[in-house]
Amino acid sequence: MSYLIAEIGQNHNGSVDLAKLIIDLTSREIIDKFDSTKVKGIDAVKLTKRDLQNELSASEMNRKYESIHSFGKTYGQHREYLELNDEQHLEIYNYAKSKDLDFVETLCGINCLSLLKLFLPDKLKVASRDLTNLPLLEAMAETNIPIILSTGMSGLSEIHDAVNSISKFHDKISILHCLSQYPAEYQNINLKSIYFLKKEFPNYKIGYSDHSIGISIPTAAVAMGAEIIEKHVTIDRDLKGSDHKGSLSVVGIEKMVRDIRNLERALGKETLFESEAIKETKLKLERSLASNCPIKKGELITIDKLHLLSPGTGFKWNQKDLVLNKKAKMTISKDEIINKEHI
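Below the sequence we write its predicted C-alpha cells.
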C-alpha cells in the first residue's frame, strides 16, 4: 500500500494546539459508506523545521511584508511567528506517536539537526529548494534515518547528485516527483515523470508530492505506481496563512485516503479471471439457448427453433451442438431455457 503523508507544514500557524488538532482530525477512523469497510488511514504527519539565522538574506528578512497572510511587519517577523522551537516539535512528535502515526520532519538547515537530540523522526524530508544543498543532505544522511527527496525544482542531474551524496552513507532513499507551483496547474504536473523516475531509479521508492487542487491527481499517481503520497492538510482552507488555500481540508483528506485505498483494493493482479463476485450476476443475465416456438415431445430440435434468452442457466451458443438434432424428451413451451432434462 502507498505511504500517505499529511503535511502540516506551517498550517499550524505557530500553534502547537492547532498542530495537535490537525493530527486529531487526520487520524480519525475512515469508513467507506459504500461497503462499510474501514480503510487504512494516513500513515504519517510532517512538520518543517527552519534555521532562521541561515534562512534568508538580511534584506529579505527585513523586507516589509504587508500580505493579508502576514503574521509580522517584516518577512523575518512573519517567519519567526510561524516557527516552532525544538521542544514544541518534540511535543507534536509525541502526540503523533500517541495516535499511531509516523512522524516525518523536513530539516531546512544543518543547525536544525539539533532537533535529533530530542527525538528521531521516522523519516527526514528534503524540501525541493534544498535538493542542491549537498552539505545539508550529507549531514542528514549521516544520521542513517531514511530520507525522502522532493524534486519540485530540479532536473535529472541534480537528482542524481542528491542521491549520490546520500548513498555514500545509506540507501534508504525515496524520491518524490513534485511541481513547486502553488497551486500546481494541471498542464504542468506531468505525472508520467513517475514512470521515468521508476525506470531511472529502480532501487528506490518513487512517490509524488502534490500541490494541485483536489484529490484526483494524487489518486492517479497511485494508479501509476507512486508508493508515497504527500499532501498539505488544514482544518480550514480560509484560515490566515499562505498555504491553507492550497491544502486539503480534513474532509478532503478523508476523501483522498478513501479513494486511494479503494483504488489499491481495485488494482488487483496483472491477469484476467472470472471473479466469484460476478457468479450470481452471470447466472442471472447471461444468455442461454431457448425455444423460439413450442417444441413437441419427440420433435427434433433444429437451429430455426432456437434463440438466446436469459438467465444463463442453460446451454451457451458455443454448446449448441449438444442440443441440435436431438429429440425433445418432453414438450417445451415457447421462450423456455433448454436444459439437459429436455433432450
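The chain has eleven helices and twelve strands.
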